[in-house]
């Protein structure tokens, strides 16, 4: 599924979950049911139920607070203060930091991909691995938990994502995980047995050149979804997930 379709599917799930709850309320009221709640509380209830349905549809938990306040903000849009929109804008800038300059947006690997990477770590007996552009550290924290004897690094430059990741590593007491607030272009890849990335087509040729120059012979570069143009991967792993993730493996 293309990225655009994935985004459209996400928005469709948000709208569908709100619509399902709304239709349920309409039916309930039509059948004579009444809830002892004022309009604002009803709107919050609508948002809360939609948030739960959204999760059942597979939406990421990030959407839950948005789903919760969506009906209230839509109905009372004139009372939402201006600073709330400014804050939302700043927060999204701190998350989607690399979308424009690096042409790498923020989206996340899923749990089946985590599991496939964990299998690769075991198979290659990698003791040091890095996720270049580690987002909210899903890969890093998963691998650090599964492989307590390996050192797992995450490299990220989006400030809010770095803060969230550092908090996750701290709260999870993951002594074998590190989050580096640094551009992936400034990281020496020579110390890693496995380098993982999930970026975009744009940086792949440059990243492959960097990996070739710095990584030791026999080590692995693993790219989620984006192949290096003109270079045959040693192997392609098809992850059994909804978006049919492909992992491209390049042996140095
Ligand atoms: C598609 S997301 C992948 C997140 C994570 N690796 C995962 O699989 O869940 C790509 C991430 O790379 C980060 N990124 C893009 N360019 C970067 C750079 N030059 N240095 C560090 N991180 C970068 C973005 O901020 C974004 O969080």
From TrEMBL:
Single GO term (MF): protein-lysine N-methyltransferase activity
Biological process annotations from GO: methylation
Keyword annotations: Membrane, Methyltransferase, S-adenosyl-L-methionine, Transferase, Transmembrane, Transmembrane helix
Domain of life of the organism encoding this protein: Bacteria
S-adenosyl-L-methionine found in the keyword field: yes
Segments crossing the lipid bilayer: 6-29, 41-63, 83-101
Protein name: Putative O-methyltransferase YrrM
